Predict the structure.
Amino acid sequence: MKPITMPLSVSNVYLVPCEGGYLQVDTGYPQDYARYRRNLARAGIELRAVRYLLLTHHHDDHAGFLNDITRDTSLTILAHEQAQPLLLTGANDKSRGGGYVNRFVRFIADIKMRLDPHWTLTFPPFALREQDRLIAGDDEQWLSQIGIEGKILYTPGHSIDHIAVVLRSGEVFCGDAAASFPLWAGTKYCTIFMTDMDAAYQSWQKLLDAGGRVVYPAHGRPFAADQLRRHMGKISTAELVKFF
Ligand SMILES: [Zn+2]
């Protein structure tokens, strides 16, 4: 199974075929919405065919256009129960510490934050609705209801509300549980910001144990899941570079 990939300004949205349409993984920044709609049209997919939206976590570059997409179509959102209060705040969770994975990343991020007016770590608050579905932990059943063979796994480490999908055919939609940046950035398959490295590596192990073979990250290009095995444990929570 090859998902439909829609690159947005900094993140990738993925569409996985399901009963009656598609399950989408994540949204982008609010200002990505027009580009997302153009991408959909170019792929010949109507917005209403996007029946489900799995939100890997509440961060600004993943939850940014939830208000827009739910205004324009009636889809069901799947999110971890801890995402619910965080989405209402409209800001990335800063209550659990963490930091950039190294000093070089911090240096680049500082420059970008100064130059990019959109990089505020905030987003339009969003209230999950009656029709949405909260996931409490690992869920090995729910996806089968919509014709997808796979599991939803609780994968904290980047954020406390993080979930990911592993399909029986080996594709992993990991959100920010892992990422593929150029080697020179030294991120070692982590996203640039992490909160708890022990939890993150346990999450990687979970993705591998569930049969993950190819990882489709929110940031960067797809990569072999074996890279997670190879880079496990390379960064410790103590060496994260704090920035708030
Ligand atoms: Zn994130």
Observations:
- The radius of gyration is 17 Å.
- The pocket of zinc ion is lined by residues 57, 59, 158-159, 176 (CB under 6 Å).
- The mean pLDDT is 96.
